[in-house]
Design goal:
Elements: E1 2-4, H1 9-22, E2 31-32, E3 36-38, H2 44-56, H3 82-100, E4 113-116, E5 124-126, E6 128-129, E7 141-142, E8 152-153, H4 172-187, E9 192-195, H5 199-206, H6 218-225, E10 231-240, E11 244-254, H7 255-270, H8 275-286, H9 290-299, H10 306-326, H11 330-345, H12 352-366, H13 369-382, H14 391-397, H15 400-416
Helix pairs in contact: 1-4, 1-5, 2-3, 6-7, 7-8, 7-10, 10-15, 11-15, 12-15, 13-14, 14-15
The chain binds zinc ion.
């Protein structure tokens, strides 16, 4: 059976917690994807025992214990939680019927299904509630919003917001997930919740109690960056005796930004410069002064040591170009190699190609387009090689990064000769 993500922070975290409880059962093929949880058939009795262990582990679950349905106050006899347990068992049976068969199974009829659930939009809410208290057994108990279960004030775009003031429809499945969310919060004294629209990511991130302190850790950043294109929101949970659980929005975590930070820090480490420059560059990345880093990379490429120079040029090109441009300008790299071969074969000065590279990089630094075009055309004409593709269009009209990338690849090819390789 499948339970889908609803987009509600509370029920989605509850769903992930459900998966983690099921992991303790001997079940094969539990599958959590970005959008749903798939489980094989579950025995109600077994699951009930497992949940019960969780519930009894606590003296009581705050806020939940005051619920007449799921709490210490629900007992009809001296034995604590008797009614709670019966209610939970009945609810599990109905939920599995709902999940296995259809949105409105026969077992739901007893409770008079009314409208579709406002949270999942899949199952039906009911007019009556499950209740096993002795004096209710012959008559129906009207279903009411319990402020002890649904008090999630403050979370953004959340249908639970101010729930106690509104009468929204909620199905038994979603209600169960809410209860699991409450158990989750209790179990993990972690006061931060990170939400994203990917269940696998929720599972990874919310089951690490120290996740926020780990956000400076490059390994965790890398792992997070595997979840491409997902934005994460951080909430802080506050437990208020009267209002219930309050989720306060703290900040957004942008995975794309995390990815590019990792990439940029790695590039800074590859660049040949001293320790304190490197630290300053990293600070610039964290404060998003990307242009400062770009200028530094460009202005310090030239170096007497050709290996350092090639390395710095390569870092600069990765910084401005990334993968998008690399294919398009392979032709310029090959032209550079061709040019390098000619220059070397006609010249006894070992440093001749490096001298050309120095000059071209200075022209890139000053952004003197017409001199740059003249210089490159001259080099190709003198050495009797065909000009690079679209050379005047690229040098005279393309934006700065693209021009730098093309000419940079040419210089890379040119310098590659000196290192003894002409293939790549
Ligand atoms: Zn629902």
């Amino acid at each position: 059976m499948k339970i889908y993500r609803t987009g509600e922070i509370v029920s989605d975290i509850g769903l992930v917690h459900f998966k983690n409880i099921l992991n303790r059962m001997d079940l094969d093929n539990i599958e959590l994807t970005a959008n749903y949880l798939f489980t094989p058939k579950i025995k109600v009795k077994e699951l009930l025992e497992l949940l019960w262990e969780d519930i009894l582990e606590r003296d009581y679950v705050p806020y939940l214990r005051n619920s007449s349905k799921f709490g210490g106050n629900s007992e009809g006899s001296r034995e604590p939680y008797v009614n709670f347990r019966k209610n939970l068992e009945e609810q599990l049976k109905i939920i599995f019927d709902m999940l296995n068969s259809q949105d409105k199974p026969k077992s739901l009829n007893k409770y008079n299904p009314t409208k579709k659930c406002s949270i999942c939009n899949r199952f039906y809410s009911t007019e009556y509630d499950i209740n096993n208290k002795k004096h209710y057994q012959d008559k129906n108990k009207e279903r009411k919003v319990s402020k002890y279960i649904y008090s999630f004030l403050g979370s953004e775009n959340n249908t639970f917001s101010n729930y106690t003031n509104r009468n929204i429809e909620i199905c038994f499945v979603c209600e169960f997930l809410v209860v699991l969310f409450l158990l989750y919060i209790y179990r993990n004294e972690n006061r931060y919740i990170i939400y994203s629209n990917n269940l696998q990511l929720l599972d990874f991130i919310n089951y690490r109690s120290t996740i926020l302190t780990e956000l400076n850790d490059i390994g965790i950043l890398r792992k997070l960056s595997d979840f491409n294109d997902y934005n994460m929101k951080i909430y802080k949970t506050n437990i208020d005796r009267n209002k219930g659980v309050i989720l306060d929005f703290v900040k957004n975590l942008d995975v794309k930004k995390i990815k590019s930070t990792i990439k940029n820090i790695a590039l800074i480490n590859e660049y040949n410069t001293n320790w304190s420059n490197r630290e300053n560059l990293k600070k610039a990345i964290f404060s998003e002064n990307y242009n400062q880093v770009k200028s530094f990379f460009l202005n310090n490429i030239n170096d007497e040591n050709i290996f350092k120079m090639v390395q710095n040029l390569s870092v600069y090109l990765k910084y401005i170009g990334g993968n998008e441009m690399s294919e398009e300008y392979q032709g310029w790299y090959k032209k550079g190699v061709e040019l390098g071969n000619k220059v070397i074969s006609g010249n006894k000065d070992e440093k001749s190609t490096q001298k050309i590279a120095f000059k071209l990089i200075k022209l890139l630094q000053s952004m003197d387009r017409s001199t740059l075009l003249d210089e490159i055309m001259h080099l190709f004409v003198v050495n009797k090689i065909d000009l690079p593709y679209k050379i005047s269009n690229i040098i005279m009209e393309k934006d700065k990064d693209e021009l730098h990338y093309a000419v940079g690849k040419l210089i890379e090819g040119l310098l590659n000769i000196n290192q003894g390789g002409s293939d790549e």
